Amino acid sequence: MSEGDSRRKIGAQVTAKACHVVHLSECARRHGALRTTKVVVGTVVEVNNTRKAPNNRVSTFITADFDIGGGSRQTFQTGPVDSTIQSRSTNTGSRQADTDLAVPEQEEGEAVLQETSPDEELEFPAQPMMEIGIAAGEQVAGPTAQVATQVWGVEDASFVMAHETKWYADEQATLIDINGSVQSKQFGINTPIGDLLGPDSDIDGKYSRLQYFLLMFPPDQLSAMCQQTNVQLAQQNKHYMSTGELLRFFGILILATKFEFSSRSQLWSTTAPSKYIPAPAFGKTGMSRQRFDDLWRNIRWSNQCPERPEGMSSHTFRWQLVDDFVERYNNHRANTFKPSHLICVDKSMSRWYGQGGNG
């Protein structure tokens, strides 16, 4: 290696692709679509020159610490890979590997690398160099967050670096209203007679579960579903469906979630699957299996044109199967439901696996 090569100095900065530092699966989790192109910065911590006695040739190895959100140590290859590569790995909590990657042997004093500035990106082999220990079932530990202090000029303020983003630990800041003060209020639902039901407003159990369901479900949706489903039933010479039968159908759907079954017919079985589990016997609900199947095949939630009109896209035509129901439900909630002052962000508890990752 050339004496003037900045990479041979301890403390110098070097760059490497993240997939050469940690396993590709970890790169996919952290960087998503950038898993094969993401570049990380490392600091040289050790430079070793080894000399082979038979021909007096020298090989140079550089060890660098790369910051990927936690302590990760990986031997850095300084030149083209020789035909023989020896590797070994260790695991000490975070992913830590020392791999002997040899550069072509050279006579003493012969330089095999060009002069390189600290900001110049180094060349890497086409194949990832970090397949160490995976075949043997090694577990890849998650990165450890780095904690920094003295942020915003506040004494002992701290943050963690994760995914190239600073996350601050401030219990008081989480209680500050971003868009100003918001008055605290409880959620509630208006009844048809003007009462407002909220937390602890029905401790005596005045309302049944069915009545709560009817408070939340749009009344005009029940009528529309009966009308449109009866059109389908009439075409097959089936009995008309009443609003009460539709509610019974909903109840059976909810009850079915309490059972494990491979086909719907098992729900009407009167034979217990074991002495510890009673038979479902859904016939006791007052609806036969045949009637349930008739409603299942002909139930309609929204009005859809018999044929797709010219100029209408196929996905718009398919959405007609639920469009009316969604509109009625949203209108009913807007008119009767009173939300509280709290907001819950959707999917706020889902783990992020990167763009293109599997979650």
UniProtKB/TrEMBL annotation:
Residues 211-354 form the PiggyBac transposable element-derived protein domain. PANTHER family: PIGGYBAC TRANSPOSABLE ELEMENT-DERIVED PROTEIN 4. Residues 73-96 have a biased composition (Polar residues). Transmembrane segments: none annotated. Residues 72-112 are annotated as: Disordered. InterPro entries: PGBD. This is PiggyBac transposable element-derived protein domain-containing protein.
